[in-house]
Design brief:
Layout: H1 3-10, E1 14-17, H2 24-34, E2 46-54, H3 58-76, H4 87-92, H5 97-108, E3 110-113, H6 115-129, E4 134-137, H7 143-156
Parallel strand pairs: 1-2, 2-3, 2-4
Helix pairs in contact: 1-2, 3-5, 6-7
């Protein structure tokens, strides 16, 4: 029994991590269909967590995203790693076809692009899941790149700084 099933049965909200599995929209739809009202909620409540990297150009965002994809590959292979690897390690490394396919799959589940691309893809994904709230996770090798990614997304969505 998965977390969405348990949340539906108990009448709890659901926060779905889109970047973990490809069948999220179907699972979230099933959560909504089987939701049982509770003392906490009268109706289903869902948000989604996404992996997004934004940069001045889509090419740069895809390069920055390689750090996350390589980190996940190493973790899933049980390899030791010290923090988030530099994207150059993914660009210069030698990988098997299976490893390349794994990293490509990670990239498919992430949103990577310039501000216009990222905004459009976040809105499309939110519509596909039928949610009003999206939690964005950005993983980069350098803190400055992660901070800039969030700044660009904030500007793209016209969000105010809260200091």
């Amino acid at each position: 029994m998965g977390s969405a099933t348990v949340a539906a049965q108990l009448g709890l909200p659901l926060s779905w991590a889109h970047f973990i599995t490809a069948d999220g929209p179907a699972i979230v739809a099933r959560y909504r269909e089987t939701f049982q009202p509770s003392q906490w909620l009268d109706s289903p409540l869902v948000n989604i967590g996404i992996s997004a990297t934004c940069a001045e150009t889509t090419e740069e965002a895809r390069k920055l995203g390689l750090s996350r994809h390589l980190m996940r590959l190493r973790r899933d292979q049980g390899q030791p790693y010290d923090g988030v690897p530099a994207p150059e390690l993914a660009l210069e490394g030698e990988f098997s076809q299976q490893e390349l396919a794994y990293m490509a799959q990670q990239q498919e589940r992430a949103i990577e692009g310039d501000p216009d691309v990222v905004k459009r893809e976040i809105l499309e994904l939110a519509a596909r899941y039928e949610v009003d709230e999206v939690i964005v996770l950005t993983i980069t090798h350098r803190y400055e790149d992660r901070k800039r990614s969030y700044e660009l997304m904030s500007e793209a969505f016209d969000l105010e700084s809260r200091g």
